[in-house]
Design a protein that fits this description.
- The structure is a homodimer.
- By secondary structure, chain A is an alpha/beta fold.
- Chain A folds into three domains: 44 residues, lambda repressor-like DNA-binding domains (434 Repressor (Amino-terminal Domain)); 129 residues, Rossmann fold (3-Layer(aba) Sandwich); 161 residues, 3-Layer(aba) Sandwich (Rossmann fold), CATH 3.40.50.
- Chain A has 13 helices and twelve strands.
- In chain A, the strands form two sheets. A six-stranded parallel β-sheet of chain A has the order 2-1-3-4-5-11, with helices on both faces.
- Chains A and B meet through helix 4, helix 5, strand 2, helix 6 and helix 10 of A and helix 4, helix 5, strand 2, helix 6 and helix 10 of B.
- Chain A binds a DNA duplex through helix 2 and helix 4.
Chain lengths: 354, 354
DNA sequence: CTGTTAGCGCATTCAT
DNA sequence: ATGAATGCGCTAACAG
């Protein structure tokens, strides 16, 4: 691999001159410039960002640490971040913690070694080790989606409480009163806040909160499937379910279908996230849309701003709104809910009976 | 940020010694070693991979260039690669071409500047620029899923032709004879090969190939939705459809449902990929499973092997097999297919009629 | 307009 | 068992 020195020698100039033609950082006689350029091309010279970084103390690289990219939610977030970062001249090193806090710390250490210019962190759990590690390095950090106690950093999040509230309220407005909630992991604030919003909506509507309508799950389709099964097997099953993410909602749709419960006729289902496939589930999923791509882009831009600017400017906290997307998995409350269904009985029979 | 030199000074030893305790690369008196270690901890010293890379000419970093990570297929592939690479001591820099060949070249250049030790490439289109760029740098490359003409590199792929053949054959075995195919982009070999397999199966079974049963689409749910709509609106609609990826199949399921065509009773649908959500579509999708995670892991391992070993060893080409996963979207051919359906007529009525 | 020089932070060879 | 010295490839004063 050719080096700048070799190019310089062959061109009969100093490395300094070569450097300057590459970076356009001072005047070079047109003739010389052309010669150098053509030599660079001919010799297939590619500057070493490694050497440059050592000199500049900047790598033009951003680390992005996420809990698990198998969740399409994060995939979209990453896309937004990656896109925005690239436009600003930064590359992304992607790290996937696979929901393992220990792996997360190990990864962040590696990122620090690689001297990333900044870190985008969607943390999976926060142990002391993480807090310590982050606090001691004065590298710019932007937290997304998940706050980390003890880490001072900008924070970009969606308003989960409001999202949960809005979703539930929509169901209430449809006439439902037996509304269940399938939550994600209880230790995740975003997950918890959605449930808080759900409860607030219920309370405001004067609907008592039933504990048997509150299912804990795990943000996976499989988990949603199981949770819906349990809910539908209740002596008095709900007429509507707020699934706190789309993956669980889609798993739930599957459970409903297999239990011969028709959505939305017998059961209304609302999801959360508005993942790409939500538009094509059967039926198409009504859901709360988070601006995932925008969140990613906003996060990256905020990080770059901090990298370029004051590392110690006052912290910012962006709270983005979540909007209702009505599709086909929700309908007005008309009958007794799933309890009215008889196994194998075709839906329209039930609808004739009303 | 502390440097090795500072640690050395504070410890009253040379940088050489500090370096050796960090890397365990020669004997150091236990006492000194302990002192250095505790100082490293105390000073929050983190070695600079940048400086180390400049010295070693190795970055322990692998670039991975994919067409578009919004396709869950690639998300899983990346996961496998990322996992395997990390275990071998390598990090991944992820680059997303967003299906833009120009962006792809720009990215690869940046990766080359960053002196990645190797490249995993799932190419989106191959122009001359790409070929040139890659050919001139003697950096190890492993191609996944998509071959690039003119680039000599190991190649990991699934057997798409066989997958298409097996999928179609399964449908034929079920008694179907009116089998349509929704293809992906025709310029992509993997996409094309699945169709080739489809045709071979048809031919072997003595079923004539109908051009109106061959829909071109684009590997997106939206595209699948539209393609299925057209197919179902045909004067003589198919009784089974082979969608050449799951995203399109799921979009198609949605189209069928909205056209009141019941799957699998009136229409059998088989997908391709076995994406995570395929298990939870309504009905659960029968599909050809590609070993995505394993492919990613295999690719990463092959690349590392080449980085560590002979850059010019004979090229290897791994062709992984694709297996049928039978779920609920396919059923034996019994009636006339979708043509027999009358709008709004419940399915069981038709089944009584046979 | 151009060249010389001095590091950036580390690994490593050669001494001791 | 340890240190001194060198250079990886580049940028940026500084000096013409």
């Amino acid at each position: 691999m050719a080096t700048m020195k070799q190019v310089a020698e062959k061109a009969g100039v100093s490395t300094s001159t070569v450097s300057h033609v590459i970076n356009n950082t001072r005047m070079v006689r047109a003739e010389v410039r052309a010669r150098v350029l053509s030599l660079i091309d001919e010799m297939r010279y590619i500057p070493s960002a490694v050497a440059r970084s050592l000199k500049n103390a900047r790598t033009q690289t951003i680390g992005i640490m996420i809990p698990n990219n198998s969740n399409p939610y994060f995939a979209e977030l990453i896309q937004g971040a990656e896109d925005a970062a690239f436009k600003l001249g930064y590359n992304i090193i992607l790290c996937n913690a696979y929901d393992d806090a220990r792996k997360q710390v190990a990864y962040i250490r590696v990122l620090l070694e690689k001297r990333i210019d900044g870190l985008i962190l969607a943390a999976c759990g926060s142990d002391d080790e993480l807090t310590m590690l982050l606090r001691d390095q004065d590298i710019p950090i932007v937290l997304v989606d998940r706050e980390v106690s003890g880490v001072d950093a900008d924070f970009v999040e969606a308003d989960h409480e409001r999202g949960g509230y809005l979703a539930t309220n929509y169901l209430i407005g449809l006439g439902h009163r037996q509304i269940a909630c399938v939550s994600g992991p209880v230790n995740l604030p975003p997950s918890r806040n959605r449930v808080v919003g759900y409860m607030r909506a219920l309370k405001e509507a004067g609907i008592p909160i039933r504990l048997d309508y509150l299912m804990r799950s795990d943000f996976t389709s499989e988990g949603g499937f199981v949770a819906f099964q349990k809910l539908l097997a209740l002596p008095q099953p709900p007429s509507a379910i707020f699934a706190s993410n789309d993956l669980m909602a889609i798993g739930g749709l599957c459970a409903a279908s297999e239990a011969q419960v028709r959505v939305p006729e017998q059961l209304s289902v609302i999801g959360y996230d508005d993942v790409a496939l939500a538009s094509f589930s059967t039926p198409r999923l009504t859901t709360m849309a988070q601006p995932k791509y925008e969140m990613g882009a906003l996060t990256a831009r905020a990080l770059v701003a901090r990298i370029l600017g004051d590392h110690h400017a006052p912290l910012r906290c962006e709270k983005l709104d979540t909007t209702l997307v009505v599709r086909q998995s929700t309908a007005p409350y008309l009958r007794q809910g799933a309890a009215a269904s008889v196994e194998g009985e075709p839906f329209w029979a039930a609808s004739l009976m009303r």
